[in-house]
Amino acid sequence: MKSVFNFRLWLVVFLLTMMWAIPTLAQVSDDFSAPALNTGLWTTVDPVGDSSFSQGNGRMIISVPAGTNHDLWTTGNNSARLMQPTANQDFELEAKFESAPSLQYQIQGLLVEQDASNYIRLDYYHDGNGLFIYAAGFINNAPTNFGVANLPTDDFLYLRLKRTGNAWEAQYSVDGTNWSLIFIFNHTLTVNSTGVFAGNVGTPAPAFDAVVDYFFETASPIIPEDGGVVDVTPPVISNAVINPAVTSTQVTFLTDEPSLGRVSYGLTAGLELGTISGSGFQINHTIDLMGLAPATTYFLQIEAEDSSTNLTQEAVTQFTTLALPNELPTVALTTPLVGTTFTDGDSVFMAATAA
Hints:
6% of the residues lie in helices and 49% in strands.
């Protein structure tokens, strides 16, 4: 009986020892495939008070509106962000974005925080001419730049940030398989949380939807992502508005999931003038058709394609550009001739032409 007791005691001690020996992970991976956000894990942070967070179709969307700044700089971290508690230890985190900044100072990226004034940011932003990747560390809101580099724009943008003590390595990818080491730096930080963010800045600041497909601790990724479920549902297009001008037309519309928006157009229903694409996977779409003729009827079709290549095409419709505005004529005096002299009391006949 005593030997059985001793064996059971040994087994308990062994199991507890093994549990203690297994390293805990700094982050919890999430592919956002659940019907709603896991609020037991994640905390939404909205310092400005006008951002929104929504989860659906295996993605998290962090939206910042136009007209107000959601910046991360010397005035504080005003970005809209999704954060989870994180152990202060070594880790490597990875995020996939299905959105690409396309207007000046739209921003999306990764955050590693000690608190709101002490943190590291690794992000993609647009400067009005192109896409950049940027890294910086903040101590009491005072930034230290670790690097900035221009990159080609792509529909999918990935980021990785690895910590080994106070040493950090930043990588980026456009396919999630081939990674490029872009920055190496040292920064002391007592890590308390990690996550993803969306931001903007400008006069006025442009609206932006950061679409996050997943946030992984690379030591424990979710495989298969989204449970291996194949998306066969095409996006739904709504609120389409066509705003013609004299030589251009702006088309705006919404989709119920992040999608690539496109507009095909032409002088006939064959839409022979081509297709204009939006930038990256968006929910709020704005596409401009330029170089049109005044007072001319065009045919147009809106379409949207999600990341699983499900395609929705609206019916072909028509619009007419505005006519040239009326302009004041140019008047030229033809009679009397230049240099003609008159005396008091003379009758003068005057004639002019207008063009």
